[in-house]
## 1
Amino acid sequence: MNARIVVIGTVALFITGAAPHESRVPLPGVQANDNRTAAGALRGDTLELHLVVAMATWRPEADSGPSIDVAAFSEAGKPPMIPAPLMRVRTGTVIIATVRNALSDSTITVHGLVSHPAAKDNSLLLRPGDSATVRFSAGEPGTYLYSATIGKHDYTKFNLNEREQLGGAFVVDPPGGSPPDRVMVINIWSEPIDSSAGRNALTINGRSWPHDERITATMGDTVRWRVVNASNRGHPMHLHGFYYQVTARDSMLQDSTFPPEKRSLVVTESMRPFSTMAMNYIPDRPGNWLFHCHIGFHVVPEAARLAPLPPDSHDRMSDDPRLHMAGLVIGITVRPSPNWRAAARVQPRRMRLLIQEGRRRGRASRALGFVLQRGATPPASDSIEIPGSLLVLTRGQPTDIMVVNRLHETAAIHWHGIELESWSDGVAGWSGMDAAHVAPSIQPGDSFVAHLTLPRAGTFIYHTHMNDLEQLTSGLYGAIVVLEPGRRFDPATDHVFVVGWDGINLALPPHLLINGDSLPAPMQLRAGVAHRMRLVNIGATGRLPFSLLRDSIPVMWRALAKDGADLPEEQATMRRAARQPVDVGETYDFEWRPEPGNYLLTAAIPGRKPLFVRQIVVR
Ligand SMILES: [Cu+2]
């Protein structure tokens, strides 16, 4: 690969973190903020808060791991914290906040200390040594954030050199308080080493995987989280094994709590930079699960650690989940309820799926593929399919898929969006019932039987969960279509569009493959009938704005499902097929009844060359 992209550079220099300074007083150490304790002193309906921004030493990984010196918020007299101290009050509270800039050499700009909702941010500019006090009412209930930038630069601008760790959550609770919840704040620190490698700290509540907190819950509990993206990048946040409901999406200044009929059920929610969401889910199966960002670069050891991975490292292929993942990952352990028993699997359908390597094609340095065995004879060992064979399954029919690894390296498959048992979920060394009974990776020449239960019909994904960046961009991904019992997959009216990456070259825009091809031949469709358009994005990163156009004008189509879950009637509306965002790890289904004519299915960012185009001729 591609390991090249992250491991080149002067490795040894960075292992212990920042270059040594001349002798001086050590900086205070940053405390990881678990966001369980609200900052400030509440007297009656007034909160008094004293915040200081000063330099501190942060260890986002192990306590003994690499460190970086960063500017961090603290409450006066307390240790500095990342994320910034939690501001959390009930609606109606008046906040008197004093902010002091204790940096010796930099002006800071503080954002988000406003009454909500706010049309604009009354940012505070503080020169070195300056303090200012603001007094405002907390405003409407919701999940917001506040942050500070060093200097006057536009904090919303995408910037790979992300130095600030000055974001924190700002929660306003309703008058009666909120049901128990947790607040998770995402921060990113990064520093390029050269054009293709960097040092990165991607953290949730101040720590990166595996050094962050494990969440435990019991089957049937309602788990409520407020997720705050205090970074200047988007993150498609994916939950393994369960759907979650998004009850609100917010920003630094605005709140939008959804009425029940507008709430969406997702396995992946695309969070924009500096946005927030309130989510909940009820785990109904025990075991170990994950909530993580689906951007490859944000969860792999070669791109989400402070010390670049040495070229001879085995971590990407390790069976140890503490090594083969890094960055924006949270582990969730669901304890079984007292009377829980694993359901018996009655007459499962059996399938055999082979993981193979074939002759190089396209731009990726290797070609890997999932190939379904059709009939009694296994496929030729060097035959591949990109994307992997479409798996057409039936709702309610237990299905055992024997995955045979014919590669010379370890493999693991995640069944993305499928509500299955933990053991089969595909995270090596983690999926399973408890620490003593976890699923291994699939060794070369070995196999693993995944038990799929298929409670709903819809569009899902399967993909590698091992050495993700390399294996995924070499072809280890595919789509799953689950049909209602008695239905047959009809390729004349049912169309799956799977978008993946063809290798990684960070110097160029991603080379996208749609159903394995970068220049697909025109598609012929029948006019006057309903076509189901299933859109799947399983690239390494990148939110794709899909449009379906006739003479540059978007057609109308009906939204049917998101991530495999049918939309409730109120949301299954006719929409313009214009720049429908599909983030990594999302699937969307639409129904389209075309008239005769020539159409284009495309993903294009205005003003730029389209990422892909597929011609559709309707007769
Ligand atoms: Cu991310």
Note: The CA atoms of residues 110 and 124 lie 5 Å apart.
## 2
Amino acid sequence: MSLTTLTEISRYYGANPDYILAGGGNTSFKDGETLYIKGSGMSLAGAVPEGFVKMDRKALAAIWDKTYPKASAERESAVLADMMAARKPGEEQKRPSVETLLHDMLPFAYVVHTHPALVNGLTCSRRGEEEAAAIFGDDVLWIPSTNPGYVLSKVVKTAMDAYSAKRGKPAEIIFLQNHGVFAGADSAEGIKAIYGKIMEKIGGRIKRRPEFSNETGEKGSSAAIGKTLSTLAGGKAAFLCNNEIAALVKNSASFAPVSSAFNPDQIVYAGSDPLFTGADTETTLGETALQEAWKKHAEKTGRAPKIVAVQGLGVFGAGPSEKAAALALELFRDAVKIAVYAESFGGPLFMTKDQIDFINNWEVEHFRSSVSSK
Ligand SMILES: [Zn+2]
């Protein structure tokens, strides 16, 4: 039974942090009539057959023939309403993934979308597109950085239609710049073969790997600073350092490779603007200086920082709960990996300011409930 296979393959990738972090990614299976897509709120690692939403593919296909408002908020909510209406009877309590249209459009029985740090080293790099072409030739479709939701689905559909018309078959691999990868196949074995090829080929081009030895959750004055940050965040702070992070927090120039956002998930969990703070005396960062830096940052960005890097010490994740602080660190750690892998492809490339703003505003509407405070 294919829903069983879909559940198995979802758990397989969901449980592997090289592919999926923090409930990210999504998977689907389709036959002629029905798309089974991951529902929001179910993690891939904890996938169960009833956590997938059954969607009417005829109703989904009809969405392409409709005209939607130009303004992004109105457009996304109109598309969302049509997507909700495409749920099969009995599925009303579930909410399909925001990437449902993209999954439905790909002509493969199984589609697995993930955000591996290794792949994002390529998709979040300056020479990503040329390097992808050099590594994979015509086997892949490269999609330039695009806002998620309807617009992304439409951009991929147009690119895939052109690809299929030219080559007589669809692309099994789609790289989304500053986001991740979609792989499609008609069997679970096919998906595993594709991902094996992706990881092996990109891995073979990596000149330097992240140096995460000496990883610690405590160091020097981290406990005292963590306490101040917990109060400022109105919740909790957690500390992280390792050899790679130690090199990044030497000064603000060395922090540059991780000073902004690579992808949407990082923005949702770790924020788009990490705060970098210098020591205000020779060796320590005092409470007042930290409060001042926090306040300035919040005024400048309109948001409380989720990541606070302290010169010479390491980084803190901060948020309303222990889980939020840990997730911020987990996604920052992923950003560090991406920055290191990107060195092999011309250096790291952040999202543009417009794209970052879109996610920050989108987050309020679509993700807030599911994000930090759980
Ligand atoms: Zn994604």
Note: The mean pLDDT is 91.
## 3
Amino acid sequence: MFKQSLGKSQMAAAALASFALPAIAADRQYNLAEPVTDIARQIYDLHTLMMIICLVIFFAVFGVMFYSIFAHRKSKGAKSASFHESTTVEIIWTIVPFLIVIGMALPATKTVVAMKDTSNADITIKATGYQWKWGYDYLKGEGEGISFVSTLVTPRDQVNNAAPKGENYLVEVDNVMVVPVNKKVRIITTANDVIHAWMIPAFGVKQDAIPGFVRDTWFKAEKVGTYRGQCAELCGKDHAFMPIVVEVKSEADYAKWVVEKQKEMSAKMDDPTKVWTAPDLVARGEKVYAANCAACHQATGKGIAGAFPALDGDVVVAGPKADQIAILLNGKNAGMPAWKQLSDVEIASVITYTRSAWSNQGKGTDPIVQPADITAARK
Ligand SMILES: [Cu+2]
């Protein structure tokens, strides 16, 4: 939109700047991500424009300065000019920077206003930041009612340098957010615990997710593909381990995905009133533990000394079930967040798992916790 305000020579310079180093531009390691939305393209062009303005000023100021130092040096007998308290000079050096600033602010403001216009969205999705994963709820449009949690799948071995790093190291998740191409998608952000931020550079989107507040942003992806981003607000120990992956599909493929996802969700629906057998609870709990608890308490249940207590041999895990249920529902101290967003079946199964895993097997009271216990404790 601000392109009209650019002169022909500036356009040529902008084109030159983006193509002069094709190897680097192709690699994108030194540049912004390739824009996939109109907003991202505007941001990209603004960045290029500002860069050119800064470079022109840089060369003009230093050019004049070095030329003056060289050409008017004392050894050549130069005499200093006297324009002390010159009204003309003062007016010029007030008006010129003013015009430069206005010239940069006008196109930038247009883009910022467009970024904030979340009206008339085709699809609305709520993104909730958790320590350390993202939850997605499709609120409006096709796919309404779909809801899932998106967790990092990069194996810990790669993080610990025990295995070679994969292609999408730390930017791969189990459940990707899926949206249709060329539709306006409104993202509502909020958080469960601390401030996170939802960012996809290729969309030109970065929005804080703040507990107790609702913020929104939007994008309209123009190209089918997979786009990756990360939490962009330092949010604790695993800040680097909560990536964001968005898959943009054609409308037909999106419709297919919606049907599949809805089927998958109804199949997974747990009946919280069902009485589970101990082996079923333990099997389910092991999965819940691996996805939610192992990052801190470790797969071995040994925790990390000084930071995260061991669950193997722990008194709470061996004690009455009510105490452990209370910690899972309400959290404890700063280190243990509340896990009330998990379902009753998930909480019951993970508690049952910890009570039978490692050396805890056969120790303590209440080895089995049923979903109904959690339902009762929530009241
Ligand atoms: Cu975060």
Note: Residues 38-71 form the longest helix (34 residues).
## 4
Amino acid sequence: MYLAAFPKKIEYEKVRTQLDKMSLAYEVVNPEPGYRLVGIPAIAMEQEVRSRLASNSMDDYVCSGWVEYRRAAIEIPQDAPQHFQKDIFGTVSIMVVAPCIADQTKIRLIAHISGDMSEVFPYINAEMRGACYNENGPMITYMDGYRMITLYPRRIAIAKADEIVDGWHTLEKIRCCVNDVYARRASIVPLYIMRKKPPALELYKRLPGTNCGECGQKTCMAFALTLWNGNAKPFLCKPIFEGKYASLKDAYLEICAGLGVTADGDFPESQ
Ligand code: SF4
């Protein structure tokens, strides 16, 4: 089965109405009540139903992406989401859902928010010992278990979520963390330096893995370590920038930014 996720409820409703009109079978994966602030319903269907939907010229809807449908191992909480007096997070739209580049059995999400988290980054950096803070982004990267989270002022990238419910669960945790730290910021000493980098292995997982040598290193792992140490520039992996691995570019640049390295290879002063 495949699962379609949507950036807005209206897009979900369009597809659901069409499926009903055509009397096609589907399953709704609903984030309510516990994850209602970070997710909107997704629709799972068999490949045949997906094809029939497509062949019916049903292409006037916006979908965040299609992924293989895996049932969630966790339950949607039955309590209402936590309320914060001042919500700096705002509303969420999941813009991209795709198979994860670093692990095809997991999914990758990109969400946009209406709020702005940048003010809270130095406080999260002070409290979260494993976080990688890049003041020049500004952005903050950290691992939540095996998931890699990157927070930008108005955007969140999650790599290696188990499936859509795990993605909502992770987004809800981020929403609560950001608003909680913001509420307590007067009692936290902000930290403006990068004290940790994302693991070199995560960088390696986003390289083509062909060991072609075009970067001047014998293997992708050697290149990952050289880049991680600040002795190489991201664009040296030509297959990503000029070759057939261009699809890896966004996730690769995301983790490079977490290291404090931009596409042209400059390290910010905090390095
Ligand atoms: S150029 Fe890229 S794919 Fe080739 S060895 Fe270097 S890192 Fe690996």
Note: The pocket of iron/sulfur cluster is lined by residues 207-208, 210-215, 217, 220, 223, 237-239 (CB under 6 Å).
